[in-house]
């Protein structure tokens, strides 16, 4: 019997007028809402990563990371046609028959996150998100488990390996600017987050059309566990960011990458950079997809506020702990 995914539920519901199942419905303040607040709606910053003036680039990256925790980058150096191919092979995978996708399913008793499925973490109230996903590591090469890399389409592996090579260059440039923005040597933040052992984990999010997008989320409000998240969106809007006490829709910028500051950078910077609170809404008529890559420390890597940023006037705001312990506490909603 095929596994019950959001895609199969959406396909079944397209033949009827039923509302979505109760376990997907969010109540009260959790429900999706339009932008609120007085005055003009601010826009998520856009940074030109090709800026030749390093001082100007560092100021833009650091400013956006401290004020917003999120920004979009253009002129990032990843060819447009490679991003298009990345999106194409991802869409092709989700368009395969259900039994072919299930070949890559995460085992029900697995403690890992790699594979095809629906829920990443359990909700204590049994609530589910309106999304399916495919998760696998793309860097370093030694971390790749090709068991979870689709064989169809046939170009999937080639495209994702090429994307990983380009993405590392973008990540290194971001880490350099973030370090310099704190008045540190350019390698400090990357080294603090795992250095060359950083794990690059790709997640393809698939949000099928939803008959009641006002009642559910693709992903509820959260901050990312990662150091950085580098995301490719498709043209269907849905990402919302919490800023100035309101939810703000992320504008689609063709060809741009969306950069999230994650929890580990907030910890390393002792709160000078902000891990962004964000969520994902769904669309009534269109499929929304996204391709985030989470840059995470190895499981036994200890992350804490950098010594250079801590003194009597700036005591540590976070505990130092192994990444696996931080992850366990967050996924199980335990105090850090």
TrEMBL record:
<keyword id="KW-0560">Oxidoreductase</keyword>
<dbReference type="Pfam" id="PF03171">
    <property type="entry name" value="2OG-FeII_Oxy"/>
</dbReference>
<dbReference type="Pfam" id="PF14226">
    <property type="entry name" value="DIOX_N"/>
</dbReference>
<keyword id="KW-0223">Dioxygenase</keyword>
<dbReference type="GO" id="GO:0046148">
    <property type="term" value="P:pigment biosynthetic process"/>
</dbReference>
<dbReference type="GO" id="GO:0031418">
    <property type="term" value="F:L-ascorbic acid binding"/>
</dbReference>
<dbReference type="InterPro" id="IPR026992">
    <property type="entry name" value="DIOX_N"/>
</dbReference>
<dbReference type="InterPro" id="IPR050295">
    <property type="entry name" value="Plant_2OG-oxidoreductases"/>
</dbReference>
<comment type="similarity">
    <text>Belongs to the iron/ascorbate-dependent oxidoreductase family.</text>
</comment>
<protein>
    <submittedName>
        <fullName>Uncharacterized protein</fullName>
    </submittedName>
</protein>
<dbReference type="InterPro" id="IPR027443">
    <property type="entry name" value="IPNS-like_sf"/>
</dbReference>
<dbReference type="GO" id="GO:0009813">
    <property type="term" value="P:flavonoid biosynthetic process"/>
</dbReference>
<dbReference type="GO" id="GO:0046872">
    <property type="term" value="F:metal ion binding"/>
</dbReference>
<dbReference type="GO" id="GO:0051213">
    <property type="term" value="F:dioxygenase activity"/>
</dbReference>
<dbReference type="InterPro" id="IPR044861">
    <property type="entry name" value="IPNS-like_FE2OG_OXY"/>
</dbReference>
<keyword id="KW-0408">Iron</keyword>
<keyword id="KW-0284">Flavonoid biosynthesis</keyword>
<keyword id="KW-0479">Metal-binding</keyword>
<dbReference type="InterPro" id="IPR005123">
    <property type="entry name" value="Oxoglu/Fe-dep_dioxygenase_dom"/>
</dbReference>
<keyword id="KW-0847">Vitamin C</keyword>
């Amino acid at each position: 019997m095929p596994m019950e995914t959001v895609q199969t539920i959406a396909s079944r519901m397209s033949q009827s007028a039923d509302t979505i199942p109760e376990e997907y419905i969010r109540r009260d303040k959790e429900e999706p809402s339009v932008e609120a607040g007085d005055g003009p709606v601010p826009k998520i910053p856009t940074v030109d990563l090709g800026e030749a003036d390093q001082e100007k680039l560092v100021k833009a990256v650091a400013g956006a990371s401290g004020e917003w925790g999120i920004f979009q980058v253009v002129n990032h150096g990843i060819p447009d046609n490679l991003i298009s191919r990345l999106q194409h092979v991802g869409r092709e995978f989700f368009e395969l028959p259900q039994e072919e996708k299930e070949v890559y399913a995460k085992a029900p008793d697995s403690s890992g996150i790699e594979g095809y499925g629906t829920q990443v973490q359990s909700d204590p109230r049994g609530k589910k998100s309106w999304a399916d996903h495919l998760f696998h590591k793309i860097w370093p090469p030694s971390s790749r488990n090709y068991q979870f890399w689709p064989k169809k389409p046939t170009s999937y592996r080639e495209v994702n390996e090429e994307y990983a090579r380009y993405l590392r260059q973008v990540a290194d440039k971001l880490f350099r600017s973030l370090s310099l923005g704190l008045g540190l040597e350019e390698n400090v933040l990357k080294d603090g987050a795992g250095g060359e052992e950083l794990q690059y984990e790709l997640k393809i999010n698939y949000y099928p059309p939803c008959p009641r997008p006002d009642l559910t989320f693709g992903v509820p409000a959260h901050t990312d566990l990662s150091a950085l998240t580098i995301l490719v969106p498709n043209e269907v809007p849905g990402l919302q960011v919490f800023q100035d006490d309101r939810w703000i829709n992320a504008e689609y910028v063709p060809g741009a990458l969306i950069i999230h500051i994650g929890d580990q950078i907030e910890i390393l910077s002792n709160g000078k950079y902000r891990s962004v609170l964000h969520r994902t809404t769904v669309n009534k008529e269109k499929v929304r997809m996204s391709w985030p890559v989470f840059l995470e420390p190895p499981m036994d890597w200890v992350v804490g506020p950098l010594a250079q940023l801590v003194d009597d006037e700036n005591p540590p705001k976070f505990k130092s702990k192994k990444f696996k312990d931080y992850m366990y506490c967050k996924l199980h909603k335990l105090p850090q």
